[in-house]
Amino acid sequence: MGTADRDLVSALRAELAAIEPSRPCDVVAERAGLGAGIRRRDPVVARLAVRLARPARGGATRTPQAPPAPTHPAGTAPEPFDWEGSPEHCRMAWLRGRFLAAASLSLATGRTHLEFIVAPDEAPLLARRLTAADLPASWRIRRGRGVVTWKSAETIGTFLRRIGAGAALLELEARQVARALRGELNRVLNAESANVGRSVAAAGRQLAAIDLLANDGRLAAQPYAVRAVADARLETPEATLADLAERLGVHRSSVQRALDRLERLVALDGPERVPLA
Asked: Is 170 inside a domain boundary?
Protein backbone atom coordinates (compact mmCIF):
# COMPACT_ATOMS: atom_id res chain seq x y z
CA MET A 1 0.00 0.00 0.00
CA GLY A 2 1.45 3.36 -1.02
CA THR A 3 2.14 6.32 1.22
CA ALA A 4 -0.96 8.19 0.04
CA ASP A 5 -3.17 5.19 0.82
CA ARG A 6 -1.60 4.72 4.26
CA ASP A 7 -2.12 8.41 5.00
CA LEU A 8 -5.77 8.12 3.98
CA VAL A 9 -6.32 5.11 6.24
CA SER A 10 -4.64 6.97 9.12
CA ALA A 11 -6.86 9.99 8.48
CA LEU A 12 -9.93 7.75 8.48
CA ARG A 13 -8.97 6.17 11.81
CA ALA A 14 -8.22 9.58 13.32
CA GLU A 15 -11.58 10.91 12.14
CA LEU A 16 -13.46 8.00 13.72
CA ALA A 17 -11.48 8.22 16.94
CA ALA A 18 -12.28 11.94 17.20
CA ILE A 19 -16.03 11.32 17.30
CA GLU A 20 -17.47 12.38 20.64
CA PRO A 21 -20.43 10.10 21.48
CA SER A 22 -23.45 12.23 22.33
CA ARG A 23 -25.11 9.65 24.58
CA PRO A 24 -23.67 8.11 27.74
CA CYS A 25 -24.76 4.69 26.52
CA ASP A 26 -22.74 5.18 23.32
CA VAL A 27 -19.69 6.03 25.40
CA VAL A 28 -20.11 2.76 27.30
CA ALA A 29 -20.68 0.84 24.06
CA GLU A 30 -17.62 2.27 22.28
CA ARG A 31 -15.45 1.68 25.34
CA ALA A 32 -16.67 -1.91 25.42
CA GLY A 33 -15.82 -2.28 21.74
CA LEU A 34 -12.28 -1.02 22.33
CA GLY A 35 -11.75 -3.75 24.92
CA ALA A 36 -9.37 -3.91 27.84
CA GLY A 37 -6.32 -4.79 25.76
CA ILE A 38 -6.28 -1.88 23.34
CA ARG A 39 -3.27 -1.25 21.15
CA ARG A 40 -1.36 1.18 23.33
CA ARG A 41 1.21 1.65 20.61
CA ASP A 42 -1.49 3.24 18.47
CA PRO A 43 -1.64 6.82 19.79
CA VAL A 44 -4.99 7.50 18.16
CA VAL A 45 -6.66 4.59 19.96
CA ALA A 46 -4.78 5.22 23.20
CA ARG A 47 -5.95 8.84 23.33
CA LEU A 48 -9.51 7.72 22.59
CA ALA A 49 -9.43 5.21 25.45
CA VAL A 50 -8.22 7.89 27.86
CA ARG A 51 -10.91 10.29 26.70
CA LEU A 52 -13.69 7.73 27.04
CA ALA A 53 -12.51 6.82 30.55
CA ARG A 54 -12.68 10.39 31.85
CA PRO A 55 -15.53 11.17 34.23
CA ALA A 56 -18.55 12.63 32.51
CA ARG A 57 -20.13 15.87 33.61
CA GLY A 58 -21.55 15.44 37.08
CA GLY A 59 -18.70 13.20 38.15
CA ALA A 60 -20.11 9.90 36.89
CA THR A 61 -17.61 7.57 35.36
CA ARG A 62 -17.94 6.80 31.64
CA THR A 63 -16.48 3.33 31.79
CA PRO A 64 -18.60 0.18 31.81
CA GLN A 65 -19.35 -1.37 35.18
CA ALA A 66 -18.48 -4.87 33.99
CA PRO A 67 -14.96 -6.06 34.91
CA PRO A 68 -12.45 -5.72 32.06
CA ALA A 69 -11.89 -8.76 29.91
CA PRO A 70 -8.36 -10.17 29.73
CA THR A 71 -6.25 -9.37 26.71
CA HIS A 72 -6.23 -12.22 24.21
CA PRO A 73 -2.97 -12.88 22.37
CA ALA A 74 -4.84 -12.88 19.06
CA GLY A 75 -6.21 -9.37 19.53
CA THR A 76 -8.12 -7.09 21.82
CA ALA A 77 -10.89 -8.89 23.66
CA PRO A 78 -14.09 -6.82 23.85
CA GLU A 79 -15.78 -6.18 27.16
CA PRO A 80 -19.28 -7.59 27.64
CA PHE A 81 -21.83 -5.86 25.45
CA ASP A 82 -25.55 -6.59 25.18
CA TRP A 83 -25.89 -6.55 21.40
CA GLU A 84 -29.41 -7.94 21.30
CA GLY A 85 -30.74 -5.51 23.88
CA SER A 86 -28.99 -2.40 22.55
CA PRO A 87 -30.37 0.17 20.10
CA GLU A 88 -28.82 0.83 16.70
CA HIS A 89 -26.73 3.81 17.83
CA CYS A 90 -25.13 1.78 20.62
CA ARG A 91 -24.38 -1.07 18.21
CA MET A 92 -22.65 1.31 15.80
CA ALA A 93 -20.64 2.83 18.66
CA TRP A 94 -19.54 -0.67 19.71
CA LEU A 95 -18.57 -1.52 16.14
CA ARG A 96 -16.63 1.71 15.88
CA GLY A 97 -14.67 0.64 18.93
CA ARG A 98 -14.04 -2.82 17.48
CA PHE A 99 -12.86 -1.30 14.21
CA LEU A 100 -10.40 1.02 15.94
CA ALA A 101 -9.13 -1.71 18.26
CA ALA A 102 -8.98 -4.76 16.03
CA ALA A 103 -9.46 -3.92 12.34
CA SER A 104 -7.09 -3.14 9.50
CA LEU A 105 -8.03 -1.48 6.21
CA SER A 106 -5.98 -2.08 3.08
CA LEU A 107 -6.20 -0.17 -0.20
CA ALA A 108 -3.35 -2.01 -1.93
CA THR A 109 -3.48 -2.39 -5.75
CA GLY A 110 -6.71 -0.42 -5.87
CA ARG A 111 -8.65 -3.10 -3.95
CA THR A 112 -10.39 -2.28 -0.69
CA HIS A 113 -10.00 -4.98 1.95
CA LEU A 114 -11.00 -4.79 5.61
CA GLU A 115 -10.49 -7.44 8.24
CA PHE A 116 -10.94 -7.72 11.99
CA ILE A 117 -8.25 -9.72 13.81
CA VAL A 118 -9.92 -11.09 16.92
CA ALA A 119 -9.86 -14.02 19.31
CA PRO A 120 -10.88 -17.30 17.62
CA ASP A 121 -14.09 -17.60 19.64
CA GLU A 122 -15.11 -14.01 18.84
CA ALA A 123 -14.88 -14.35 15.04
CA PRO A 124 -18.20 -16.19 14.50
CA LEU A 125 -19.93 -13.95 17.05
CA LEU A 126 -18.71 -10.78 15.35
CA ALA A 127 -19.67 -12.15 11.93
CA ARG A 128 -23.19 -12.88 13.21
CA ARG A 129 -23.50 -9.39 14.64
CA LEU A 130 -22.38 -7.82 11.39
CA THR A 131 -24.87 -9.96 9.47
CA ALA A 132 -27.61 -8.81 11.85
CA ALA A 133 -26.63 -5.25 10.98
CA ASP A 134 -27.04 -6.04 7.24
CA LEU A 135 -23.26 -6.11 6.80
CA PRO A 136 -22.57 -9.80 6.15
CA ALA A 137 -18.93 -10.80 6.45
CA SER A 138 -16.95 -14.01 6.11
CA TRP A 139 -14.78 -15.39 8.90
CA ARG A 140 -12.09 -18.02 9.33
CA ILE A 141 -9.31 -19.06 11.66
CA ARG A 142 -5.86 -18.07 10.41
CA ARG A 143 -2.72 -19.03 12.31
CA GLY A 144 -4.65 -19.34 15.54
CA ARG A 145 -6.47 -16.03 15.17
CA GLY A 146 -10.02 -15.23 14.16
CA VAL A 147 -10.29 -13.19 10.98
CA VAL A 148 -13.54 -11.51 9.93
CA THR A 149 -13.27 -10.18 6.40
CA TRP A 150 -14.91 -7.86 3.89
CA LYS A 151 -13.64 -7.57 0.32
CA SER A 152 -16.56 -5.60 -1.08
CA ALA A 153 -15.75 -1.89 -1.38
CA GLU A 154 -19.47 -1.13 -1.27
CA THR A 155 -20.00 -3.04 1.99
CA ILE A 156 -16.89 -1.50 3.55
CA GLY A 157 -18.06 1.98 2.55
CA THR A 158 -21.50 1.35 4.04
CA PHE A 159 -19.94 0.11 7.29
CA LEU A 160 -17.58 3.07 7.62
CA ARG A 161 -20.38 5.51 6.90
CA ARG A 162 -22.63 3.92 9.54
CA ILE A 163 -19.96 4.10 12.25
CA GLY A 164 -19.42 7.80 11.56
CA ALA A 165 -16.79 8.25 8.83
CA GLY A 166 -17.21 11.42 6.80
CA ALA A 167 -14.56 13.44 4.97
CA ALA A 168 -11.97 10.65 4.84
CA LEU A 169 -14.58 8.24 3.50
CA LEU A 170 -15.53 10.73 0.75
CA GLU A 171 -11.86 10.91 -0.23
CA LEU A 172 -11.65 7.11 -0.24
CA GLU A 173 -14.73 6.81 -2.43
CA ALA A 174 -13.42 9.52 -4.77
CA ARG A 175 -10.19 7.56 -5.19
CA GLN A 176 -12.13 4.38 -5.86
CA VAL A 177 -14.18 6.11 -8.56
CA ALA A 178 -11.03 7.58 -10.12
CA ARG A 179 -9.35 4.17 -10.12
CA ALA A 180 -12.41 2.57 -11.67
CA LEU A 181 -12.52 5.24 -14.38
CA ARG A 182 -8.81 4.81 -15.11
CA GLY A 183 -9.26 1.06 -15.29
CA GLU A 184 -12.20 1.38 -17.68
CA LEU A 185 -10.32 3.93 -19.81
CA ASN A 186 -7.29 1.63 -20.01
CA ARG A 187 -9.55 -1.27 -20.96
CA VAL A 188 -11.18 0.76 -23.74
CA LEU A 189 -7.84 2.05 -24.99
CA ASN A 190 -6.32 -1.43 -24.98
CA ALA A 191 -9.32 -2.83 -26.83
CA GLU A 192 -9.20 0.00 -29.34
CA SER A 193 -5.46 -0.48 -29.85
CA ALA A 194 -6.01 -4.18 -30.43
CA ASN A 195 -8.78 -3.43 -32.93
CA VAL A 196 -6.59 -0.93 -34.78
CA GLY A 197 -3.76 -3.46 -34.88
CA ARG A 198 -6.05 -6.13 -36.32
CA SER A 199 -7.47 -3.67 -38.87
CA VAL A 200 -3.98 -2.60 -39.99
CA ALA A 201 -2.87 -6.21 -40.35
CA ALA A 202 -6.01 -7.11 -42.30
CA ALA A 203 -5.61 -4.11 -44.61
CA GLY A 204 -2.01 -5.12 -45.24
CA ARG A 205 -3.05 -8.64 -46.24
CA GLN A 206 -5.82 -7.29 -48.47
CA LEU A 207 -3.53 -4.86 -50.27
CA ALA A 208 -0.96 -7.60 -50.86
CA ALA A 209 -3.67 -9.92 -52.19
CA ILE A 210 -5.07 -7.23 -54.49
CA ASP A 211 -1.60 -6.45 -55.84
CA LEU A 212 -0.86 -10.11 -56.56
CA LEU A 213 -4.23 -10.74 -58.20
CA ALA A 214 -3.95 -7.59 -60.30
CA ASN A 215 -0.49 -8.55 -61.55
CA ASP A 216 -1.47 -12.04 -62.67
CA GLY A 217 -4.79 -10.98 -64.18
CA ARG A 218 -7.11 -12.76 -61.81
CA LEU A 219 -8.49 -9.54 -60.34
CA ALA A 220 -9.92 -8.53 -63.71
CA ALA A 221 -11.82 -11.84 -63.83
CA GLN A 222 -13.65 -11.12 -60.57
CA PRO A 223 -17.24 -9.81 -60.38
CA TYR A 224 -17.73 -6.07 -60.58
CA ALA A 225 -18.61 -5.76 -56.85
CA VAL A 226 -15.33 -7.45 -55.87
CA ARG A 227 -13.30 -5.25 -58.23
CA ALA A 228 -15.04 -2.13 -56.88
CA VAL A 229 -14.13 -3.06 -53.33
CA ALA A 230 -10.53 -3.77 -54.39
CA ASP A 231 -10.26 -0.37 -56.09
CA ALA A 232 -11.70 1.37 -53.03
CA ARG A 233 -9.23 -0.42 -50.75
CA LEU A 234 -6.29 0.57 -52.98
CA GLU A 235 -7.39 4.21 -52.98
CA THR A 236 -7.99 4.38 -49.20
CA PRO A 237 -5.78 1.79 -47.44
CA GLU A 238 -6.59 3.28 -44.01
CA ALA A 239 -10.38 3.09 -44.44
CA THR A 240 -12.43 0.82 -42.19
CA LEU A 241 -14.95 -1.64 -43.57
CA ALA A 242 -17.72 0.76 -42.60
CA ASP A 243 -15.96 3.59 -44.46
CA LEU A 244 -15.63 1.45 -47.57
CA ALA A 245 -19.26 0.37 -47.37
CA GLU A 246 -20.44 3.98 -47.05
CA ARG A 247 -18.25 5.07 -49.96
CA LEU A 248 -19.56 2.31 -52.24
CA GLY A 249 -23.15 2.49 -51.03
CA VAL A 250 -23.30 -1.17 -50.04
CA HIS A 251 -23.62 -3.14 -46.82
CA ARG A 252 -20.57 -3.66 -44.66
CA SER A 253 -21.06 -7.42 -44.97
CA SER A 254 -20.74 -7.13 -48.76
CA VAL A 255 -17.38 -5.38 -48.38
CA GLN A 256 -16.23 -8.04 -45.92
CA ARG A 257 -17.22 -10.88 -48.27
CA ALA A 258 -15.42 -9.26 -51.21
CA LEU A 259 -12.18 -8.78 -49.27
CA ASP A 260 -12.41 -12.29 -47.81
CA ARG A 261 -12.77 -13.63 -51.36
CA LEU A 262 -9.63 -11.80 -52.48
CA GLU A 263 -7.60 -13.14 -49.55
CA ARG A 264 -8.99 -16.62 -50.09
CA LEU A 265 -7.91 -16.65 -53.74
CA VAL A 266 -4.34 -15.92 -52.72
CA ALA A 267 -4.44 -18.38 -49.83
CA LEU A 268 -5.50 -21.14 -52.24
CA ASP A 269 -2.30 -20.68 -54.24
CA GLY A 270 0.04 -23.57 -53.75
CA PRO A 271 2.86 -25.10 -55.74
CA GLU A 272 0.41 -25.13 -58.63
CA ARG A 273 -1.90 -22.25 -59.40
CA VAL A 274 -5.50 -23.06 -58.55
CA PRO A 275 -7.53 -22.39 -61.68
CA LEU A 276 -10.29 -19.83 -61.56
CA ALA A 277 -13.83 -21.13 -61.60
From this structure: no
